[in-house]
Write a structure and sequence with these properties.
single chain; 302 residues; D-Maltodextrin-Binding Protein, domain 2; two-stranded antiparallel ribbon; 9 strands; transcription regulation; sequence-specific DNA binding
């Protein structure tokens, strides 16, 4: 039997798009097909499988149990085919698009990426920043660096760095109140982003059960790195990850008044689609960054 008879590839492509997008209409828009044509292709694959793959409801479709089992395998198969074609064309190593949080990108990646580029000049690195969890199946990114617990469906993930936090401020600001001698002294100063849950966790661990943070002015600077710049400028006390600001501490622009550090269980992780785990540029970057940060040596095991 011919392969085209065994595997209706066009219908599988339509099924993959409809399952991923959750809509026949959106699948048609992506593939340049009418909704009628999409429905016809879905019917063909269902006849081939011998089971319904979608539950049709008014203005809504959901995958059946069989469809849920089939969808990720089909997506992986098409991604493998795409990688094979790119590799054959020689394009697979042309560019690596990394999506990272702004803080990790500015405080670690930008400072170290040069060594990767020197070692792998055939890979052009492009970096975008966002704190949102993106869908690597639909977004134009090869891999992502995010904070979390490291569990994202369909993605392989590797721990990179523990996230611990503690208050930090400029020495000059501390001197305006005669220095910081106990945790409650911090409350005499402006707290940068008092609504950040890290503050309550840290004060509780420091034995301050009633820090009265609710009545303070709220501000969201959007990323820890911006809060650090505000702290350096003497605009208040920020709660930061000290490993990122060793240069500022060495230069006397920031200091950490207390040794106490806390964690909320979220850490930095590298994540990429499981189906693309063997893509040369992803594998190369993964090996490099894990070698640079060496999470195993820091007692950080998944």
């Amino acid at each position: 039997m011919k392969m085209s008879k065994q595997f209706p590839l066009n219908a599988l492509r339509v099924f993959e798009a409809a399952a991923r997008l959750g809509s026949f209409t959106r699948a048609g828009e992506e593939l340049g097909m009418t909704q009628t044509a999409v429905s016809y292709q879905i019917k063909l694959i269902e006849e081939n499988v011998g089971e319904p793959l979608f539950l049709r409801r008014p203005r809504q479709i959901t995958l059946t149990e069989v469809g849920q089992r089939l969808a990720p395998r089909v997506t992986e198969a098409f991604e493998m085919l795409q990688e094979a074609v790119l590799s054959a064309r020689g394009d697979v190593d042309s560019a690596l698009l990394i999506s990272s949080t702004a803080t990790f990108a500015s405080q670690w990646l930008a400072r170290n990426i040069g060594s990767f580029q020197l070692a792998h000049p055939n890979i052009a690195v492009r970096l975008t920043t966002s704190d949102k969890i993106i869908d690597l199946a639909t977004e134009a990114a090869d891999l992502a660096i995010r904070s979390g617990v490291g569990v994202w469906p369909g993605l392989d993930s590797h721990p990179l760095m523990r996230i611990e936090f503690t208050p930090m401020l400029s020495p000059a600001l501390a001197e305006t109140i005669g220095g910081i001698h106990e945790p409650r002294d911090l409350l005499k100063l402006r707290i940068i982003d008092a609504a950040d849950p890290w503050w309550r966790l840290w004060f509780e661990a420091a034995g301050v059960s009633d820090p009265d943070l609710e009545g303070r002015p709220t501000s969201r600077l959007g990323a820890q790195t911006f809060e650090a710049r505000a702290a350096v400028a003497g605009q208040g006390v920020a709660i930061l990850t000290p490993e990122f600001y060793t240069d500022d501490v060495a230069l006397g622009r920031l200091y950490q008044p207390f040794e106490l550090r806390c964690s909320d269980g979220h850490d930095y992780w590298l994540a990429y689609p499981h189906a693309r785990r063997n893509t040369p540029k992803i594998r190369t970057f993964r090996d490099w960054i894990l070698g640079e940060l060496d999470p195993d040596a820091n007692g950080f095991s998944k």
